[in-house]
Amino acid sequence: MLISLTVGKVDAGVAVLLTHDKRLIEFPSILLPPNISSGSIVDITVSRNFGSEQKSQDAFLALQDAIFTSFGESEPTAPVLRCKNATQTSVVLEWDPIELATADCISLSLFRNGQKAGNIPRPTNMHTTKISGLAVDTEYTFQLVLRTSAGTYNSEKLVVKTHKMTDLSGITVTPGVLPAQLRDSLTKAIERIGAKLADTVRIDTTHFVTVEGRGIAWEKALEMNIPVVRPEWVEGCERGGRIVGVRQYYLDADPKLRQVEQQQQPPQPQQQPPQPSPTRETPKSPSPTRQSGADGAVPIPPTPPAKDSAPEEEESSSEDEDDENKTSVQDEQKVRVEDREQQKVALRPGGPSPKDKEAEKEGSESSSRSGSRTPGQASFQNIEL
User: Do the Cβ atoms of 134 and 158 come closer than 8 Å?
Assistant: First the structure.
């Protein structure tokens, strides 16, 4: 297709071309023939290049296939969470290296019982973590959540239960500076209690046992806040059948504290058959009797039972105390019987004394002399009282 255009104006780099219907077309001046000026007429041939189009299309499709092969066939995988070690108050978790494929890692978070516990630092390099401060003999649920530029991926939920105080299988001991004989005895004691022995200080090391505070392993244990104790600590756990505190077994601890703790350990409880509680016999009071005299019978009130001032808790006291109580009760009863006899003697009616007889005679004579008479010539009779 041939087109004739008139050059209207030529500037630096751009020329203005005019069509027959007076339309303006800006055209690069570098593509025009040299020595072109205003008023010149140029012929431009326009045609479609099918070969170049096909080549460009093929190159574009090849690029799309390369992008899909590199970024579309593989994708990140969910992390696989495992429990490496568990103790009474801590749990060590581990997982496989994270596979991100061509995606970028945004964060790796750890969830405990459905709540976020924190982010894992340097998730592409770290594959373990330790959670401390847990409760004894308690179940916990852990899960990892991986966030990437290609999406979010969750691990399977992991249920871990912390150990009881009598379960020593979670203890991992790393030995330090120890004599050969002491190291051998330590190894045997660790095997007997069911603990584990590690040659190096690791994230799951629970105790560092040594007799001297020196060496690279000792420095690493201090850096990781691992308790540094003496070999007697393992013996204390074996002797007590449970995990014991480490404060008395530090390198700079007073040995007397360990002796006091050994003395204060309670003996193992033994089951004994139940014994019946001793019962106290209440002394029987003498039955009330009647003594009859010439004047009549005087009833003797019953002796009140002895008051038991001891509370119910003292019923199981020793036999010596019971004998003393019985003796005191009997003595008290004797005194009461003697008092009653004296009272009986005082209550018995006796004959009138001579003084009473004389008073009665004088009263009768005076009444006969000065007795008054009634209008019917009746007189009061003198009655001897």
Answer: no
